[in-house]
């Protein structure tokens, strides 16, 4: 039986009428958007911890919402001096693990990566100041020395001024990048501003004022790197760095065991500029089609994913063979 729709629920209903705002709040709380709708309709009661997070997600309505909540929950109290944003809510862990155990193998990597980026974005940039989150995977070992030579960045999420989905984030990263450096040294690395005096390599992109890169590690082996950029200088304070490390740990669930490589097998090269790379990427789909057709003609068919991996390896080899003049 539904409960009475009280004043705070009506206020919440008005706020979440905007789909983008509903998604933002859901990300901040680590719940499904449908859960917010059920609260607003009086179908379910949120736990006190979620009410606390709801207040923090709505700073402009915090005072009004607190008073309305007390009408229905007289014992509810906003904790003084407690910053819930300094830890990942239990609901987020529960949601991620639930997705992991219920997702089929073929879909698990993409869905887990996307969900974790989405939830991290909601907690790290709750007020939409501007943030981009991307993931870079270690390419398979190659070359005479049979080492990991680069990382492949191919998926991401963002808040304005970046797009929501960063499908254009395709890029090979090497030792010249913040992510490449973080993977090589095996720990989180941050650069707090464009003007910071540092020997840490970084290629600044448009809108980016501070950045952090956190290697995805499991048992001393590395699968890639989580890269986060902010429009705000000095944004990645210590408590946010700890959050980034926690989300990076969760990302290990998005990788298969064979995608992790020993740190001694990491020997990243210098990769060409974005402009040079994107000229090569324009031929990507055609090259995948060619691989699929040739494999079929030889009666050794491959899946689309396998064909894509073949092309990525070929593209990496092409880029590594370019002269140094293309690396600026």
3D structure, described in words:
The protein has 328 residues and is α+β, with helices and mostly antiparallel strands. It has 3 domains: 7-82, Orthogonal Bundle (434 Repressor (Amino-terminal Domain)); 90-265, Beta-Lactamase, CATH 3.30.450; 274-326. It has 12 helices and 7 strands. The chain has helices at 7-15, 19-29, 33-41, 48-57, 62-72, 90-102, 105-124, 178-185, 238-251, 274-281, 284-297, 304-320, and strands at residues 131-138, 151-158, 171-173, 189-191, 210-218, 221-230, 261-262. Strands 1, 2, 3, 4, 5, 6 and 7 form a 7-stranded antiparallel β-sheet that branches. Strand 5 and strand 6 (221-230) form a beta hairpin. Helix 1 (7-15) packs antiparallel against helix 3 (33-41), helix 2 (19-29) packs across helix 7 (105-124) and helix 11 packs across helix 12 (304-320). The termini are far apart. Residues 80-84 have low confidence and may be disordered.
């Amino acid at each position: 039986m539904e409960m009475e729709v009280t004043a705070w629920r009506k206020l919440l209903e008005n706020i979440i009428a905007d789909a983008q705002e509903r998604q933002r709040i859901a990300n901040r709380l680590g719940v499904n958007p449908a859960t917010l709708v059920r609260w607003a309709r009086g179908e379910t009661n949120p736990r006190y911890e979620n009410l606390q997070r709801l207040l923090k997600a709505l700073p402009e309505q915090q005072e009004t919402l607190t008073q309305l909540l007390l009408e229905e929950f007289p014992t509810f109290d906003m904790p003084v001096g407690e910053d819930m944003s300094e830890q990942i809510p239990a609901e987020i862990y529960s949601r991620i693990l639930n997705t992991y155990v219920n997702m089929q193998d073929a879909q698990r990597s993409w869905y887990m990566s996307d969900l974790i980026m989405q939830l991290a974005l909601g907690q790290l940039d709750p007020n939409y100041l501007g943030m981009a989150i991307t993931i870079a995977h270690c390419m398979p070992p190659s070359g005479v020395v049979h080492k990991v030579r680069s990382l492949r960045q191919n998926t991401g999420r963002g808040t304005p001024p970046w797009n929501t989905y960063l499908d254009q984030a395709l890029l090979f990263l090497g030792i010249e990048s913040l992510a490449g450096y973080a993977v090589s040294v095996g720990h989180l690395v941050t650069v707090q501003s464009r003007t910071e005096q540092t020997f840490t390599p970084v290629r600044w992109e448009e809108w980016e004022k501070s950045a952090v890169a956190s290697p995805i590690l499991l048992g001393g082996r590395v699968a890639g790197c989580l890269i986060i950029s902010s429009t705000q200088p000095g944004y990645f304070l210590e408590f946010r760095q700890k959050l980034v490390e926690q989300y990076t740990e969760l990302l290990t669930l998005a990788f298969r065991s064979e995608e992790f490589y020993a740190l001694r097998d990491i020997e990243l090269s210098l990769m060409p500029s974005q402009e040079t790379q994107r000229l090569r990427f324009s031929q990507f789909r055609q090259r995948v089609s060619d691989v699929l057709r040739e494999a079929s003609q030889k009666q050794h068919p491959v899946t689309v994913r396998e064909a894509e991996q073949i092309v990525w390896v070929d593209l990496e080899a092409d880029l590594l063979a370019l002269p140094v003049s293309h690396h600026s």
